Amino acid sequence: MSTHAIQHQGKSFPLGSTLVPGGANFSVFAKYSTGAQLLLFDDIDAPNPSRVIDLDPRSNRTYHYWHAFVPGITAGQIYAYRVSGPFDPVRGLRFDPNKVLLDPYGKCIARPAGRSREAARHAGDNAASALRNVVVDPSAYNWEDDAPLGRPFAKTIIYEMHVGGFTRHPSSGVSLERRGTYAGLIDKIPYLQDLGVSAVELLPVFAFDEQDGPPGLGNYWGYQPLSFFAPHDGYSSRSDPLGALDEFRDMVKALHRAGIEVILDVVYNHTAEGGVDGPNICFRGFANETYYILAEDKSRYADFTGCGNTLNANEPIVRRLILDSLRYWVSEMHVDGFRFDLASILSRDQQGRPMASPPILWDIESDPILANVKLIAEAWDAAGLYQVGSFVGDSWKEWNGRFRERCEILSQRGYWNRSCPGVPADRKPRRLPAAGARSRAKHQFRDLPRRVYAQRSGLLQQQAQ
Fold it and tell me: Under CATH, which number does the domain 2-140 receive?
């Protein structure tokens, strides 16, 4: 490992890593920090960086942004940061110069075989077990004239799915090496066409922390985001650092060719860093007091999500992060819409109070890049804020939680066959023993109302066996 002082200033914009002629520019926001290092790794599993670049506050810092131009960098370079500053939780500051940090604007994640969430929680250097980023070149991909489909909501039939689970079982007919991946989803496009769906709504595909789960269990559903820009690498059938990025785009392009839109279930309400005993992975180590809504004494996190922390969505830096993320997924990844998990969080101010006119929601609605994008709100949060029927904006659609719960009750009681005669006989819910009814219903009710609508509209054929 070699340590160098960088001689090239670089620029504070754009944020993240950006390929430019002769190398790459790196820029990151870190208010109240006193020092920063850019770490370059030779490969995903390298225990230590091969090069450590000390950023000079006199030449490599503008306002609260650390930046540098590094000659010779190309796509595929693996990198991360270390940032120093005061550890003063009472002021909301949690810097730890021993922790390797992800770039908040990183477009791809490298996950070493020995990655450890626990090592990021405890004292000491975690370079050997930390997540890293990968420099990408978005322009290198050939979209082959792919374009958004722009289908109206009134003609949209949505199939909600978990990318990892959709083709995991051998009965999917997908080859072993492609099961549970973006590539596996491509293999099932004829099945989706046969169903008559016009859009898939993918449960979280932002890179998430698979180790953030109960003791002895992993995180399956993906609602613990590590990044708002990088696709989840665990859903890629490829092992190369840029594999997830290209495979996700292959999936979107193939779905569009089949006339199917892609909607993402996005989590802009919290991160995988958890509460006060959580790990330093990214945001906490750069600007904890900026990225999160803190309690009055600032040593604790306001938790309106039930996940230990709450993203400070209406803080200017975080507003820009969310907007830049959405624009990236539309412009560079060609997605057609977003379903916002716990969207009411985005209506809270920097103290957690609900606002009548939240800036971030109007930013999203009025952004020209997002003008023709489907916006769906889960219009409530985990702290009791319920905004179904009153969510801010003109173009947002809403999930109706109470209707969904009613569907669950009807499904449990076997009433769908009476109230919805369009459901085929072999698809009518069966009465289950009391112990199993609720568990089964939680899975059935998600798709049943959509299927009923599709049957009545003549848009849904008999499901393939």
Answer: 2.60.40.10
